[in-house]
## 1
Amino acid sequence: MPRRHLVDICDLSKEELYGILNLALEIKRFPKKYYGICDGRILATLFYEPSTRTQMSFQTAMLRLGGKVIGFSDPATTSVSKGESLKDTVKMTSGYADVIAIRHPYEGSARACALYSDCPVINAGDGGHMHPTQTLTDLTTLLLEKGTLNGLTVGMCGDLKNGRTVHSLIKAMSRYRTKFVLISTKELRIPDYIRDCITESGCSCVEAERLDEAIPELDVLYMTRIQRERFKSLTEYEEQKGVFHLDNQKLRLAKKELTILHPLPRVDEILVEVDEDPRAKYFEQAVNGMYARMALIAHMLDGRTGIPMPVYPPSGRRCPNTACITNKEEYLPRMQRVDISGPVCAYCESKL
Ligand code: NCD
């Protein structure tokens, strides 16, 4: 059977996705039933970038399933600091572990990892590109709170350009007749490949620059922090930071049934006073992340989830995105995919 990976949330069919979300909710209700189902299996967490929730929830997910965990959270303590390539680290790790979760600062790194891994690869965040397991977390929470994913008006606010959780969530929600309200500054709007995805889905999408004007019609508000580490310079970050704040005053304009989500960590975009509002669900969301990852690991280890690495045609061109993994690890084959707007890099989805 070909190896299956979760690089992009759309690697899961709609049916598979529902299966995983429902399993996550089932595990949350009856956790003991699932203790030990991954006995003898090993998860490797290769974290080249800082993480609190994603790494700990992956680890606790595997431990609760009865499996074991190896890995690193600081590449400086590994052979990466001696110049080892991503290919070599992954190839070798996949001989030790049954499943790999990788987080890396370069876009497309999980796709690259899947090329060389002998076991399933899970993308735990690849630069400012994608974060599919955060989406599983978000959708599990929405299913619990709303009872459906269909037809919701979803506001996304903050750094929509660099926020990988936003990109993955939009891709997933584009399948559910969502009405998107994108709230950001002009500089931090969604990238073209996400815009194309909304267009292709036929979902409606409006853009706004003020949270107080957008908030009254929302069923869901997804707040995000401005991603300081993705800016080219500190000056550019300084110009964007602190623009959006959710506070109790703005919440007075919102629906009673609004669900407030945030992938966390927050900086200053949600005031602490909001934590007491019953509509604030971000801490529950973080806990749901563990159940979502338990469901995903269980599914992946039975070999049926995710898609085998697609075969992409070679691209003669270098990817123009300097944050793309192909511009860091030069041995990677250049590959392309054809999108509605033309050829894009198969790793980071930038236009070629
Ligand atoms: C997010 C991430 O790493 O992209 N955090 C997370 O995984 N829960 C969001 C962020 O860092 O802003």
## 2
Amino acid sequence: MNKREIIISQDSAELCRQAADKFVGLARHAIIQRDRFAVALSGGSTPRGLYALLATPEYRGQVSWAQVHLFWGDERCVPSDHEDSNFRMVRQALLSRIDIPADNVHRMAGEKEGRLAAAEYEQELKNFFHLTKGKLPRFDLIFLGLGEDGHTASLFPGDPALNETESLVTHTHVEKLNARRLTLTFPVLNSAAEIVFLVAGASKMNIVAKVLEGAADGSTFPAARIEPRDGRVTWFMSRDAASALRLGESQQLT
Ligand code: 6PG
């Protein structure tokens, strides 16, 4: 299995279509295999277009939402109706337009105190994945974004959360944003069967090249530490975001 694939699309609209097709295919396969599809969603702006596309009649009818369980890879520590909330963004773009059981939507409680919210979410993961002591949840799919500083989820350069190896979920104060965040930790991210990065815009071209082709030091660029032990990483990028890459054999232009 090719552990890493790079799919370059003309623009973010085509990137979202590629990612939506991947979501539908993985969901269908997981539901056939295990009667459920566990996916962790990314926040930020890039995936909004994907979630909105999945909510269209063309796509939503292809997914058996009753077997889909939506989690979040990270969340801002704000109420769920706050403009910065990743849950709010997904509710507006997707949840409000599909018929998914409320019990299948596993949001992080951004409104609660960080330590408590992280502990509660960790317990929710343990319950859902029936984890025994020391075991890790294996998501069928985790969507991730890439910040210009190389952060992914809410794992930021130099943050102590990068070194968390025991907890499944942690909370952190992101100095540069002066904001509190909740995030899945590297052990959980690297336990996924499929990781899909969604990266669009010329502003990401330099960090994309550093993470994918530079001698990336994981502590400098957290996204470079995404290396699932038994999983595949697919980078869906717009042409401008990928424009500093030296295209190799694994790249596909769509
Ligand atoms: C968040 C995300 C974060 C995001 C990157 C890229 O909560 O903001 O989890 O990691 O994916 O910052 O964001 P854009 O896609 O908006 O560039």
